[in-house]
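Researcher: Good morning. I'm working through a list of sequences from a screen, and I'd like to move beyond sequence-only analysis. For each chain I'm collecting a predicted structure so we can compare shapes side by side. This is the next one on the list. No need for commentary yet; just the structure.
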Amino acid sequence: MAKSQRRGSRLPRSSQRYTKFPRLQLRMYWLVAFLSLATSLQAQQPAPPVSPEVHPDGQVTFRIRAPKAATVEVGGDWKPGQLTEMTKDADGVWSVTLGPFEPSIYIYWFTVDGLAIADPVNPRVKLRARTSASLVEVPAKTPDFWQPRDVPHGAVTINWQNSPVLKETRWVWVYTPPGYEKEPKRRYPVLYLFHGSNDTAAGWTMVGYANFVLDNLLAEKKAVPMIVVMPFGHAVPFGSPPEIQAKNTPLFEEYLLKDVMPLVESTYRVAPGRENRAIAGLSMGGGQSLQIGLRNLDRFSSLAVFSSSAPADFETQFAEVLGNSKATNAKLKAFWIGCGKQDPAFPRAQKLSELLNAKQIKHTFRASEGPHTYTEWRKYLVEFAPLLFR
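Model: Good morning. Structure tokens for this chain:
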């Protein structure tokens, strides 16, 4: 009897199909309803503002939707250290038009009720060691020396390395000139190029456009084909206390000599010898270039300092180099210093040049018109690179 009851408790196959069919219909109904609601809500959302908007005359309009904000400002490296107030419209969109700007790539950010943020609708992000910002490009009417032109292009490769010195995995960006892959027997000189404080190894490529600068110089036969190596210059965490930060350059030097250079020379076709190595950097990287270059004249034959200066104990630390001008001048094929007159570092850079003159150390001092930005540093690179490896 129990067996027959269990059998009787099962529904016929036709009934099973009957019950499943309405369930499927119900699921489809809810799916259609959900998609309809989502579409309706999306239609109700206002379109994101256009930002940044670059105008033909070089002016730029910045916009951000922040209807509940009390104050919104925009800052950028066109005027370092200054913020400009923005105005809000009836839809809660804040905007301001600035410029016209010199053709270049500019770093900018919004400050919303005191909080600095990148432009939320701009996909061009400026990576930093800490925080991030956005990028806007104001192009020249005809491609400038830093812009992509219709010329052969080199390649930029990201190399990942587990650094024994720093006990962590780091990236090293490397530019190889056009034709590198097609000439397997050719070896190339190397420029080690350093970024500034709170920047990353990507800075010289993503903002400095160093690869396009070299491409254009090579197309005009103004420079020797070279490999450019761009490592991450913060050997200690950015923002560390002063006593920790003081260790950054010595530790970075050890990382460069023991990890980065062996990686490059084992991976790429590098020409041997100090005469085929140069070192340069901007801001923090300029100070690193100066100190590492002068401490290792057996490894580097040229060096450049962009928008930077010497440490306080420079004369003591480099007494031998400064005291033997004949030997130092014989080793340095090019010693180049550049700084903008509107750069806070200018008085110290000028003082460094005066000290070198007093010590009879041959060098070039370039005083340009401009602040502490990649707009100036690109100009310095385009002047320094043609001096190398001649």
